[in-house]
């Protein structure tokens, strides 16, 4: 996803729109589930065996990473904290979670390893040679998350002060000349719809499948667990870059922990109220076209992009046709407009063959 402006956002190729890759979302939610299982007094139903069943087994999880002698300070202490929490929680599982653990180890015997050896390696966090052989696919599928942002991208700034102090070991002071770094962001209030699917492997025992499909407060257990992990990730971890300064934090719509229909749920991108907003956004475009030429390249690109962005508005095709008639004699502008697939489609709807 390389992009000349990709310094905080990933852009979906070949469309050029910002998005959160499903793989990254899955990793963040898995980490949230592990933290709930190991460190929170109220785990909201999460335990390490549950993480393995739903996300798959990962030998590189933080609680499996041994502390190296060369690691001192915060990093070494953090590794040790995860390992101690893992041993403590895994040896004090509830009856239900203990059963999930035993069933998980029993399923792994298909790898031609003795069950007792697997249980000992996992319980004592020992025998790395055994742990490295454990490969199990999870049941959750995380889809790419594309934002719905009516106002487009915004530009923020990072102003690195005291570069002469940090990089050149000079005396710090206010006489430095910081070079501002601009980066793209999504504005506050941008809507994201997270989609997660549940498709357990065929090797799952029927008892485990039934356990996660069992209704809890009217919803399947797996869904309740995912919502709790997502909520924890939204509030405490964040997604994407610069989460330490507040980016990537989310709030549930209306504060409800339940699935909400997305903007495309009824087959139409905008409801009647939203359609009115879109139409009003094209009013400046109509006014600009009414003034006629001359048009600069910036004018043509700006007007064409605004029409394309609101392509579902009733007057979009008519405005596209009007712009085309005004600039079609310029070979450069004609090529520019025909290179925009959405605008080109609007021209066809307006009766223009290009």
TrEMBL record:
GO terms, biological process: defense response to virus
Lineage: superkingdom: Bacteria
Domain CRISPR type III-associated protein: 2-250
Keywords: Antiviral defense
Keyword flag Isomerase: no
Annotated NCBIfam families: cas_TM1791_cmr6
Protein name (Swiss-Prot/TrEMBL): Type III-B CRISPR module RAMP protein Cmr6
Lineage summary: Bacteria, Pseudomonadati, Acidobacteriota, Thermoanaerobaculia, Thermoanaerobaculales
């Amino acid at each position: 996803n390389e992009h000349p402006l990709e310094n905080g956002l990933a852009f979906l190729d070949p469309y050029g729109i910002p998005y959160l890759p499903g793989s990254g979302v899955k990793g963040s939610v898995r980490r949230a589930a592990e933290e709930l299982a190991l460190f929170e007094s109220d785990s909201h139903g999460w335990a390490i065996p549950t993480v393995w069943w739903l996300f798959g087994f990962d030998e590189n999880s933080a609680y499996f990473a041994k502390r190296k002698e060369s690691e001192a300070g915060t990093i070494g202490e953090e590794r040790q904290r995860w390992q101690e929490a893992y041993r403590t929680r895994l040896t004090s599982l509830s009856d239900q979670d203990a059963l999930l653990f035993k069933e998980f180890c029993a399923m792994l015997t298909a790898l031609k390893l003795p069950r007792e050896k697997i249980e000992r390696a996992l319980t004592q966090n020992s025998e790395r040679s055994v742990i490295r052989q454990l490969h199990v696919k999870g049941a959750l599928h995380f889809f790419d998350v594309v934002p719905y942002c009516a106002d487009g991208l915004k530009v923020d700034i990072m102003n690195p002060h005291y570069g002469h102090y940090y990089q050149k070991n000079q005396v710090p002071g206010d006489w430095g000349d910081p070079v501002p770094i601009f980066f793209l962001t999504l504005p506050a209030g941008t809507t994201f719809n997270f989609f997660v699917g549940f498709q357990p492997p065929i090797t799952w025992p029927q008892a485990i499948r039934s356990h996660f499909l069992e209704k809890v407060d009217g919803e399947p257990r797996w869904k309740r667990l995912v919502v709790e992990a997502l909520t924890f990730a939204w509030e405490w971890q964040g997604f994407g870059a610069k989460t330490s300064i507040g980016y990537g934090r989310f709030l549930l719509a209306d504060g409800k922990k339940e699935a909400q229909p997305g903007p495309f749920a009824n087959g139409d991108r905008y409801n009647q109220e939203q359609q009115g907003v879109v139409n009003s956004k094209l009013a400046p475009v109509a006014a600009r076209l009414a003034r006629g030429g001359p048009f600069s390249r910036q004018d043509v690109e700006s007007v064409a992009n605004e029409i394309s962005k609101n392509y579902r508005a009733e007057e979009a095709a008519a405005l596209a046709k009007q712009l085309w008639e005004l600039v079609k004699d310029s070979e450069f502008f004609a090529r520019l407009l025909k290179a925009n697939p959405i605008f080109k489609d609007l021209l066809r709807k307006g009766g223009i063959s290009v």
